[in-house]
Amino acid sequence: MTRNWPMLVLAGFLLCLVQAAPALAQVDQQQTVNSAQATVERMKTDSNFQQSFQPKLQQAKAVLIVPSLYKGGFFLGAQYGNGVLLARRPDGAWGYPAFFTIEGGSFGLQFGLENTAMLFLIMSDHGLSAILNNQFKFGADAGVTVIIVGAGVGASSTSNLGADVYAFALSGVGLYGGLSLEGTAVAPRESWNAAYYGQNLSSRAIVLDNVASNPQADRLRDILAR
Question: How do residues 178-203 score in pLDDT, each as one tens digit?
Fold first, then answer.
């Protein structure tokens, strides 16, 4: 019995993640939009990111905001979160958000639980098209260059020029042995789009065709534009 305790602990941990996933999925759409707004405000005022974030935001074609990326692991890891994707319109204003999930798993030396806010600046049409596909997976789409930017790491150095996506992470509450997006998938939440806009709309139609609006997202759009 003693020899099996690591497997029992792992099984219990994974069971907790499976049971928690439905609860995470129940988060209200407007709550996700409001949390995304707070994430942008935090990023803009965090001294660790001011020199790297704001200049890249001004150049970005789109932004994917995941206010709470829940991560956990005991050798096997898992992460899950809801987010919103907004694109810049031809007139320079930001469009309305489409809803996405980000989730994945990994294997390796990783222990603990953490809630991290993630903000992805999408710099190229190629990067935006990849995310608007049915499912985009970090590390699997070799044609998309992703740079992870942490506190004190400049995103404007010569070695980082030309990236399709910059991933900014704001550490939350918890302890986790490192951040990795390898194998993490981004997928649209069309049912959330329908609930938020009152009609069946694809993420592509919302983000690129600008066919929907909801005044409750105007505050988020204004914060991004500042």
Answer: 556 766 888 999 999 999 999 999 99
